Amino acid sequence: MAFYVVQFLTGLASAASLFLVASGLSIIFGVTRIVNFAHGAFYMIGAYIAFTLTEWLSGAFGFWGAIVIAALAVALIGVLVEMVLLRRIYHAPELFQLLATFGLTLMVEDLVVLVWGPDDLVGRRAPGFRGAIDFFGQNIPSYDLFLIVLGPVVLGILWLLFQRTRWGVLVRAATQDRDMVAALGVNQKWLFTSVFAVGVFLAALGGALQIPRDAVHHAMDLRIIVEVFVVVVIGGLGSIVGAFVAAVLVSELNAFGILIFPKISIILVFLVMAVVLIVRPWGLFGKPEAPARKTPGLTVNPWRPLTSNERLAALAALVIAATLPLFAGNYALTVGSEIAIFVIFAVSLHFLMAVGGLASFGHAAYFGLGAYGVAFLAKMAGLPMIVCLLLGPLLGCMGAAVFGFFAVQLSGVYFAMLTLAFAQIVWSIAFQWVSVTGGDNGILGVWPSSWAASPSHFYWLALGVAALVTIALRAMVFSPFGYALRATRDSLLRSEAVGINAKRIQWTAFVIAGTTAGIGGALFAYLKGSVFPDNLGISLSVDALVMVLLGGVETVSGAVIGAIVYKALNIWLVSQTDLSKLVLGGFIVLIVVGFPKGIVGMLETLAQRRRKTSPPGSPLLVKPIESAE
Amino acid sequence: MSVAPPLLAVEGLTKSYGGIHAVRGVSFSLRAGEILALIGPNGAGKSTCFDMLNGQNKPDTGHVRLLGEETTGKKPREIWRLGVGRTFQITATFATMTVRENVQVALISHERQLFNLFGSAPNFDRGEAGRLLELVGMSGYADRPCGELAYGDLKRLELAVALANHPKLLLMDEPTAGMAPRERVDLMRLTAQIAREKSIGVLFTEHDMDVVFEHADRIIVLNRGTLIAEGSPAEVRGNPQVQTVYLGEGLVYDARHREGASA
What is the DSSP string of A549-596? Predict the structure, then answer.
């Protein structure tokens, strides 16, 4: 019995840090509507700076002072980031902000290694809380007890801050309707900056407080950000109380999950999240999202099928690509195959995201399922390559059918979170079910048949499949189904009022996108000769998002260009520099700020400006379009 | 002589939210080709009533029948399939698609081609889409992205979309709200003309009394969720109860009053 009590208390102690970080994320989202992916990075910097300061400063005051100074310093960094970067992109689509903060995260990951080195750093113990307390023969670190008390105290302080101060009232008002608050004469710029500073302060404090418990390392940002996403989604985005309750719930699930279900401890939390989202899509303490106020006059270029000239150009590009084996070496061909596979992956997400308006944060799950499908068929059933390639993606299709059914019940940020959760479930099954999937060691020896074994043959295969997939999905964009899908994206209300079963349309799109991603994964398994849990991990999902956004989410062909540029750049950077994440992250941030329409979107705009000598239509109608640009 | 069921029959429609009775026992009917206005002050229950006819809201009790067929509790998309077109108080259109594509989506749905993955949508029923756009005077805008249309044009587009499945009944929630006076008259004339030609029943809510008294064949008046009057424009205008609860005391709407004000 005492053991369970101690386990419970350990859970509570872990909840404190999680709550601090999650409440920060929640506050920032509530006011600025930015899902701050860099929140984990701020948490990590907080821990690193606190580590250094506690080494320098001595004594009790030194330790606690260091924690607070570290959090304040990171908050200052947050203010800089907000003023220099985020202020430029508040009016960009939601996903661009996420992309920008993801770029920041990448940069920070390299920067901390540059400054603090790649090794884990073990911090000092907190003065006054070094010992442990005996509880019926079980030891409880006294620092844990401190954290258990700290959580509710911070919750109380935040509550007072929001209920009793003028600033807090403004923040709550802005959370409900920021346009109205601006209309009432509140200086939104500084409100946003201060909110961001508070949020980042909380994240950094959470990180700094972890150093007596955990080693500081350069991957702690991704681990915490996934947990924090789960917490704010279970608790309800924008709700502090929700963040607290959910942080406790998640930490306890982690603490007891390991005891009760050691095999599936990771997926337990995600299962709970999925259930919460299905029963209460806006979280335990959240409120249903008010329909977004659409910016009037916001237009995109109407999509149209390619003209015959453009078709010829695309065909020419394909022919040129097909001649690569005539002059390139084996390494270049392998890179080419990998790029072609990622084109498949990117266009599949683009179909869901740009055409269907459903931004999946876990698209790698279906890519990876396709890869595992092939590995199972090839290694266990011993089927020939062609059969594996045809049947393997079906695993991706089935996964998309099951998860997609639940996911399309939601939309927007919550859809993104649920797809992320599903992807994590699949990842943890692959990781933990060692007897079937090989766990972390993966499945090795998935080699292509002799007809596709040479690099040039495999390249042609990958290129051909990529071309077919791209053409098929493009045709679907301009099919009756494609129109229906775009209709559900533009207005659910109107779609239902003209007889469209929006959920079923979206579910179908999800399955199509998942199956297509599975085709990419199937080829990928043969390219690498092996399958690992990483093939369905978060970073691969994020890669897909970046490729689509980089090309331009509002364009039809952007995903292809985005995939080629991103993947080529990625592979080249990794071979050229140890700081590839820093460069890549900086590049992403630059693209988001400088070219928010993506590469293809930018080119289209340029081409249009050249074409348009005099704008058609009445000046009244053209005006809002220009101002939207 | 057997009596054919009316186009729309509403019986004892009731809805309450918590302790508030939004709609209480509302009954009325609508014939084909008839234009019926549903009016009432703010909070009278017009929108609740409307949403229950359209399937966006379920009544606590009561029935809605379309040509004798029960539609109570059906989903909006099912009601659309039975031949009910709808326009919204705040226009709902597909903003990133062109005007023609907006109409084509409705046609695709009408012909049950929604899951056709490899057909050509740009060429789908182009002729019919063109005819519908011409009917509402939007032919010149067919290739414009819908997001750059002026508000009045969006309302006309909504009408074209609503007509795509050859509806028997049109539900129009404040069709002229937010429009310039001239546009209001044009839109309602157009609606009335189409309704008479194609024998479509029209039910609309409206705050602009000029529009109501000029275009409605019949008017029903809601106040605090209850039907308080029903009749021709002249009858409703002369009803003292309507004048008190709806138009307010001291301000009597009639033609002389208007002439006096403008003189």
Answer: HHH-TTSSSHHHHHHHHHHHHHHHHHHH-TTHHHHHHHHHHHHHHH-T
